[in-house]
Amino acid sequence: MRLRTITGATSDRLKTVERVVKGTQTTRVSTRIPVTGRDMTATMKGPMETKKWLKVSLHAPIPLIEAVSDLMGVLSGSGVEQSPETPEGCSVSGFFPLEPSDSQDLQVEEHLDAVREQMEEVFQLYNTAFEGLETTLMDDADWATSWQEFFTPFEIIPDLIIKPSWEDFEPEDTQKILELDPGMAFGTGQHASTRMALLLLSQSEPAGKRILDVGTGTGILAMAGILLGAADATAIDNDPDAVDVAEENIAANDMDEQICVSSTPLEMIPESYEIICANIVHNVLIDMATDLARCSVQDGALILAGILAGEQEENIIQTYAEHGFHFVSAEYTDEWVALRFRYAG
């Protein structure tokens, strides 16, 4: 992420996963959070050296989606696919490379045993019945594109349509379109945190203002701000893959001259902005409070997302109050909350 990648030190939920995955080194974890929050994502690492992949899928109820996605990312080390959420939950799939050899059946069994054992323990932590696993053997090309079936045009907030490049869509007169491919970054808009951040952004009257999007992922918040009339936007992310994907999406939407995207660390951003957005995770947002205050203009808007309602929400409001931010409003979806503040200095 990048600022949106969740690693052991930055996610309370991943700490639960790490208690389950004993001795596993977490490198890149695909999740939706929006972290966070949690969009449908496909995350990969390194060149593909094998001809077959094992796709392991299971159903995750709403309360377990984050933990299951994080754990699947740790176990697979290659990729995680999450279907759109429904009231019942969603499908989470991991992709496991199979070395070309006569022992592929044994490799499959070893992967399944590991996933089954760890997932059963996570489900037990949540006092939820584990329904089992489904498997599919896939070729390289099928693995690289299988998740695209879940990403179709949709209205993320009123009159703002998100569509992937491989889909056609005819907008109505009042609708605006963002062409957005998730690639190896987070933030396609299907997670509640992204939707709520966009809603709060639209309520912040961005027309003519300058925006800073921290942990930009796919660039969705920065690009939406431009569509809503912002003068310009700076989008930063500490993950090179996210920067690459954001640059491609920004170019596809002809916003190159209005959005500057880079891996510049937040602490090195010298300018001030009238609207700042950060859709990341609680612990990282806490650590960023001082720099976000420094980058805010008087009476500027701050939008924070990737936060769990309740204890995390209260902690964020208290911490940011200590840094000169007055709480303005909140949006809630399921267990998630997004917060809007005004900087009073």
Description:
The protein has 345 residues and is an alpha/beta fold. 31% of the residues lie in helices and 26% in strands. The chain has 9 helices and 14 strands. The strands form 3 sheets. Strands 10-9-8-11-12-14-13 form a 7-stranded mixed β-sheet, sandwiched between helices. A 4-stranded antiparallel β-sheet has the order 2-3-1-4. Helix 2 runs antiparallel to helix 3, helix 5 packs parallel to helix 6 and helix 8 packs parallel to helix 9. The longest helix is centred in the N-terminal third of the chain and has 22 residues. The radius of gyration is 20 Å and the shape is globular.
From the structure above, extract its key features.
345 residues, four-stranded antiparallel beta sheet, globular
Major sheet: arrangement of strands = 10-9-8-11-12-14-13
Radius of gyration: 20 Å
Distance between the termini: 30 Å
Oligomer: single chain
Continuous helix count = 9
Strand % is 25-35%
Query: Which H/E pattern describes the elements?
Result: HEHEEHEHEEEHEHEHEEHEHEE
Q: What is the overall pLDDT average?
A: 81
Structural class: alpha/beta
- Please tell me what the overall shape is: globular
What are the low-pLDDT stretches, counting only 5+ consecutive residues below 50?
1-50
In helices, the fraction of residues equals 25-40%
Number of strands: 14
Give the biggest sheet: 7 strands, mixed
